[in-house]
Protein: N-acetyl-D-glucosamine kinase
Amino acid sequence: MSFQKENGAFVRSSRAGGWGHLLGDDGSGYSIGREALRLALRESDVCSMRKYSSAAAQPTSQLAEAVFDHFKEQFPKSKLEDLLSTVMMPKSASQQPKDAVMDRTSRIAGVAKTVLAMVETNADADRIVAAGADKLAELAALLVLHQGIEPSKASLVLAGGLMQDEGYRRRIVGSVEKAGYKFQHVEVVDQPAMNGARFLLRSAQMLQ
Structure:
């Protein structure tokens, strides 16, 4: 999203992306976790096929193994050949459908930390993270290009849990600058929801 100052207050001027995990959220924890899971699930399918046909087990990739270990810690009874069930299953039979969807979304997004931790040592993780950073840079470029924003006079604010990862922040800023947009200032907001709540509270107190 982009904001501009009007009458001493910041108001949203436009947005690019951020359509939710089903349609967008490129570069988010969910999208990074999803890509790693897709890789792991392909290997899970192969494992299941070979087990069914009594063929010798095939070594899994480092990233797929790390993803499986991530879920194994949470669900000790999970099996590599049935990783999809582990990812998709509800916490309990009585869990409400809406809660189950939110739980699965959080479960998938949680894989992102595993991926980020492997960036320096694993080519698959590096590729996934680099693609995420490039996608976010593309969105920033759209906002700049189509609104006539002058980056040298504007700030780039990175908000959200993944932005606490210094390596990922550097990649995003690097991708933005590679596209030709160097912002005057880059700032990281660690808890946007909490900061927003505090702002609303202060605003309400001022009106009393």
Notes: Helices lie at 29-52, 62-74, 83-88, 97-109, 111-117, 123-147, 166-178, 192-207.
